[in-house]
């Protein structure tokens, strides 16, 4: 368990999840949270990362930095998704171990689980089958980071573990249609189609996904920092999912779009369903606070306030 006075290095503090974790740490009174921009510390540079960790000597590292994206981005840049994430994970996780950092929290992804698995997905489903082909390189990188953390825990007794969230959305999301995840992509599509132009969505609309607001992810991460001896990897989520069709219709209503939704079934669906079994985390006393609808309204408000900065109409 960390004290509020312990030094924490948060990697990825400008991203969707990292920025929410940074805010939550400060709001909850953690007094020594160290952050670095990419210009200040290149996480791809092993020597720089090792030197930084050795000199800073934090009590904990939170790794929220990663190359992330939706199906299109994973299909277009598979080498980047496995290569860059493996390098970042190796540099931070092994570097923290070499610097005698006692606590490490690694942000994984529900993409690590096999395509065919029981729903909701329990932690034990890891490696029970092949990963979903549309994001296998990314999933394999995350699995490698998870195993590195757990191997260090087992061999050296350090408190290294992985947090496994579902699809995350919220403030500071990525709205680039070539690289974004489904929820922010739909917000942008419906907004740009106002008032009544048709919107084309990928796939059949039938796959089911679980969505968790970044502020709830941050709440779970800080909650877990306050627990003793988290082992292996732990699912974070709501335990409920919606179909992509239901998601699109909800976003359409919130945005105020009056046109038609067309489904391009020539495009891949990805996982048939991804719903997390959160029995373990709920049993520890944590619950999400933000409903999907209120979270989407908040995300759309952020999009409207920042679309000029994002160079979006």
Identify the overall geometry: globular
Oligomer: single chain
Q: What's the number of structural domains?
A: 1
Low-confidence regions:
none
Fraction in helix: 40-55%
How far is the N terminus from the C terminus? 46 Å
The largest sheet has its strands arranged as: 2-1-3-4-5-10
* Class inferred from helices and paired strands: alpha/beta
CATH topology: Rossmann fold
Can you offer a commentary on this structure?
The protein is built from 10 helices and 13 strands. It has 313 residues and is of the alpha/beta class. It has a single domain (7-306), classed as 3-Layer(aba) Sandwich (Rossmann fold). A 6-stranded parallel β-sheet has the order 2-1-3-4-5-10, sandwiched between helices. Strand 1 (7-11), helix 1 and strand 2 (32-34) form a beta-alpha-beta unit. Helix 6 (182-192) packs across helix 10 (292-306). The mean pLDDT is 94.
Topology:
Layout: E1 7-11, H1 16-27, E2 32-34, H2 46-56, E3 60-63, H3 71-76, H4 78-98, E4 103-107, H5 136-156, E5 159-164, E6 167-169, H6 182-192, E7 199-202, E8 208-209, E9 211-213, H7 214-225, E10 233-235, E11 242-243, H8 244-255, E12 261-264, E13 273-274, H9 279-284, H10 292-306
Parallel strand pairs: 1-2, 1-3, 3-4, 4-5, 5-10, 6-9, 7-12, 8-13
Antiparallel strand pairs: 8-11
Helix pairs in contact: 1-7, 2-4, 4-5, 6-8, 6-10, 8-10
């Amino acid at each position: 368990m960390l004290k509020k006075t312990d030094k924490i290095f948060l990697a990825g503090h400008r991203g969707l999840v990292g920025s929410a974790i940074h805010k939550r740490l400060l709001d909850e009174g953690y007094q020594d949270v160290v952050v670095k921009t990419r210009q200040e510390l290149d996480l791809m540079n092993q020597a720089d990362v090792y030197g930084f960790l050795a000199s800073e000597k934090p009590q904990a590292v939170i790794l929220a930095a990663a190359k992330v994206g939706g199906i299109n981005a994973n299909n277009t840049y598979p080498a980047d998704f496995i290569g860059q994430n493996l390098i970042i994970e190796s540099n931070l996780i092994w570097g923290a171990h070499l610097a005698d950092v006692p606590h490490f929290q690694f942000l994984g992804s529900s993409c690590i689980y096999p395509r065919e698995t029981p729903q909701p997905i329990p932690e034990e489903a890891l490696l029970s089958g092949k990963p979903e082909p549309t994001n296998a390189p990314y999933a394999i990188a995350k699995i490698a980071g998870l195993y590195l953390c757990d191997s260090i825990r087992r061999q050296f007794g350090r408190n290294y573990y992985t947090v496994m969230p579902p699809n995350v959305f919220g403030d500071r999301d990525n709205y680039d249609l070539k690289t974004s995840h489904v929820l922010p992509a739909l917000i942008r599509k419906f907004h740009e189609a106002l008032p009544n132009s048709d919107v084309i969505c990928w796939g059949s609309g039938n796959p089911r996904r679980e969505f968790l607001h970044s502020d709830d992810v941050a709440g779970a991460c800080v909650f877990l920092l306050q627990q003793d001896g988290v082992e292996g990897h732990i699912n974070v989520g709501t335990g409920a999912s919606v179909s992509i069709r239901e998601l699109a219709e909800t976003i359409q209503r919130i945005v105020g779009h009056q046109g038609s939704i067309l489904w391009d079934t020539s495009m891949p669906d990805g996982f048939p369903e991804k719903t997390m079994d959160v029995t373990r985390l709920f049993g520890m006393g944590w619950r999400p606070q933000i409903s999907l609808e209120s979270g989407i309204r908040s995300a759309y408000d952020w999009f409207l306030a920042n679309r000029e900065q994002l160079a979006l109409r």
